[in-house]
Each structure stands twice: as structure tokens, then as C-alpha cells.
Amino acid sequence: MISIGTKDPITNAMEPATEREVVPNDSLSEIRAAILRDYQAIDLMYERGELDRYAGRYVAVFEERVVAESEDGSIRNRAAELTGVDADRFAVTFVEPW
User: Fold this and answer.
1) What is the mean pLDDT of each run of 10 residues along the chain (98 residues)?
2) What is the reported pTM?
3) Radius of gyration over every alpha carbon of the chain, rounded to an integer in angstroms
4) How far apart are CA 4 and CA 8, in angstroms?
């Protein structure tokens, strides 16, 4: 595979750079911070026993609350369908059945 901007060994020509949608770093930082808060909320919910009823299942957390549950790893898509939020925005974990 040839990286953008490297010479193609066959034609010895430079490949043109492709344009990508650029997300400002501050927006990414805000999104990452929000996801981190949701993972911290998951830890607190575990400690308080609030996730016990989801034992053996996956949960998706958004804005510090469980928004979806599933028996398989397709939880992100299910949560996105239910909330209209991008699938990558959820904090997802499997709740161990203790």
C-alpha cells in the first residue's frame, strides 16, 4: 500500500493528496471529554450497583445514563438508532455477571 505523498514505485510519480473533512481539534477534545465522563459514570454506576440488572449484557451510556442494552456487540448501532446520536459517541461496556 502506498501512503499519500509517497512515490509510486511503478510510475515513480507522486500521488495527489486527497481532501478530508477536518474536525477542529477543540471539537474532538470536547467529544473525547464527554465520552470519558460517560466511562467515569459507568464506573460509578458499577460501584452503586446500578448496572446489576444488565448483568451479562452490553450497555451504551450517553450523557451519564444508560440509553441502550444488548446481548451482542451491535450495541453502538442500536443506541444510535434509538437516540439519533453518532454511533462513535457512546461509552460502551459489557456488564460482567458476578
Assistant:
1) 46 48 70 95 96 96 96 91 94 92
2) 0.71
3) 20
4) 10
pLDDT at residue 72, rounded to an integer: 86
Q: Which residue has the cell 451510556?
A: 61
Q: Residue 8 has which C-alpha cell? A: 509510486
Contacts of 8 (CB under 8 A, 6+ apart): 2, 14, 15
| b/e sequence 41-78, b meaning 16+ C-beta within 10 Å | bbeebeeeeebeebeebbbbbbeeebbbbbeeeebbeb
Q: How far apart are CA 70 and CA 56, in angstroms?
A: 9
